[in-house]
Amino acid sequence: MEIKTKFHGNVAIEKEKIIRFEQGLPGFEEEKEFYILPLEGGADLFVLQSVATPLLAFVMIDPFLYFKEYAVKISDEVKELLKIQDTKEVVIFSLLTIKEELKSITANLQGPIVINDRLKRGKQVILVDSDYQTKHELFLFKEQKEGSK
Predict the structure, then answer these.
(1) Which terminus of the chain faces fewer neighbouring Cβ atoms within 10 Å, N or C?
(2) Is the CATH number 1.10.3720.10 carried by domain 2-137?
(3) HSE on the CB side for 34, CA within 13 Å?
(4) How far apart, in whole angstroms, are the C-alpha atoms of residue 65 and residue 44?
(5) How many alpha carbons lie under 13 Å from residue 125 in its C-beta half-sphere?
(6) Structural domain boundaries of the chain?
(7) Over residues 97-113, mean pLDDT
(8) Contact 59, 46 (CB under 8 A)
(9) Residue 102 banded pLDDT, cuts 50, 70, 90
(10) Is 16 exposed, middle or buried (0-12, 13-18, 19+ CB in 10 A)?
(11) What family name appears in the similarity comment (predicted)?
């Protein structure tokens, strides 16, 4: 199967690796199917690409690589929705906001993307009883550090 993407042009994907978001994403409830691609040239960056809408794509990271104390408690409701049986089948990402040509990058730790990798089911979870915010500063590139002087 081939899809058009925001960052990679036309890409051949494996249909069985499409991730289904039954409720869509907040603000994009009609978008149900996404595919994860690596972002070329990005240090541990990924793209959550809509299968149906080429221009709809979100840059993401594995938050545990950059925020060592980060912890996500997955509710029973989310476990049931995603049919999670074992924590080993869970993958968590944080969406990034990138501004001013890489001078400002923030990670949304309050709204992680939770995926059951075995069943390819996903949901953006809002952590309401936490100290996490939607914008935690993140330094990925040398240009950011130089630009913040």
Answers:
(1) C
(2) no
(3) 31
(4) 9
(5) 28
(6) 2-137
(7) 88
(8) yes
(9) low
(10) exposed
(11) Belongs to the FliW family.
